[in-house]
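[Automated response] Your request has been received and processed.

Submitted sequence:
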Amino acid sequence: MRRLFLATAYDLTVFMTDAADHIAGKTGLTLTITASKAGGSFGSITPTVTELADGWYKLALTTSHVDTLGDLALHITATGADPTDLVMQVVPVNVAANMLQIGGDTQSATDLKDLADIGYDPVSHKVTGVVLVDTTTTNSDMRGTDSAYTGTPPSASDMATAVWGAGTRTLSGFGSLVADIATAVWGAASRILTANTNLNIPAAAPDATA
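Generated structure:
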């Protein structure tokens, strides 16, 4: 079954057969077209019709002709030609249509109606109203403090608070750095590790003159 995208204009080609032999294409026709959307009653539509050649005609379906999900049935007649009947399926466009297909059959209009609920616009093919960054989010949602998060990256002090529980931490020298690391890891500035040799991490800086 041919599929048309929802609310997307489409040039549909149809073949009209000569009523005299029911085989040859009939030229020079004025087409009368009625349409049924999603199983509804047939009603007249008037797309722009362009004759191509050898019994082929182009119907310029507009967005208003394909604005309903589900079957779109066309009944086309003209004097001197056999009637032509076509059934197509109007489906959501692009990725949405592919994602919602199961076993090659597109879900029903009822199943697909939620696309509109997420702000999907079938004309622009965009989803609107989706908040990617909520500027009302607070730091408490991210790292346990109460200052408002406005979308600006956290400062060094904020990150330090998140890691150490304090916005600043002074490291006065190499020895103090070692002591601070030792305290953070072991809870003590100095600790003896006994293995093949003894390793003592001093609390004070080593003597630079030694």
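Summary generated for your ticket: DSSP finds six helices and 14 strands in the chain. Confidence is low (pLDDT under 50) at residues 100-112, 137-149, 194-198.
If you did not submit this request, please reply to this message.
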